[in-house]
Design brief:
Elements lengths: L2 E5 L3 H13 L3 E5 L2 H11 L3 E5 L7 H11 L5 E5 L4 H9 L4 E4 L4 H12 L4 E2 L1
Parallel strand pairs: 1-2, 1-3, 3-4, 4-5, 5-6
Helix pairs in contact: 2-3
């Protein structure tokens, strides 16, 4: 399956995402902040990134922008508890190929991940 980088400053969210993705057969790496995510992306070149929008230091939209500058083909699905349509719009404008709402459920995560990896994109 795919190599996926989970980026979230919440260890609980990372654990939930890891469990969902590993049970589906994916290989998972984690980053707790934006800078670590950028470093890991440059080193590991994952197939996809599951990226939290709301993080300290560098938020997910800033990380998304940096990832897209690093790799214009980066496959990124944004995850957030923020239900504002502007957040989704900004994510899509920044190049995210999917969007999933928190609290994360297996069904929503796998739908977004599978669609993103298939090149179709998906939003919740």
């Amino acid at each position: 399956m795919a190599k996926i980088l989970i980026v979230d400053d919440s260890s609980l969210s990372r654990r939930i995402s890891r469990r969902i993705l590993e049970e589906a057969g994916h290989s998972v790496r984690e980053a707790a902040d934006g800078l670590s995510a950028l470093e890991q992306y440059a080193t590991d070149r994952p197939d996809m990134v599951l990226l939290d929008v709301t993080m300290t230091e560098m938020n997910g939209l800033e990380v998304l922008e940096q990832l897209r500058m690093m790799d214009s083909t980066a496959c990124v699905v944004m995850a957030t508890a923020d239900v504002q349509t502007s957040t989704k719009t900004l994510s899509e404008a920044g190049g995210a190929v999917g969007f999933v709402l928190k609290p994360l459920t297996s069904k929503a995560v796998l739908l977004a991940v599978d669609a993103a990896l298939a090149g179709q994109g998906a939003t919740q």
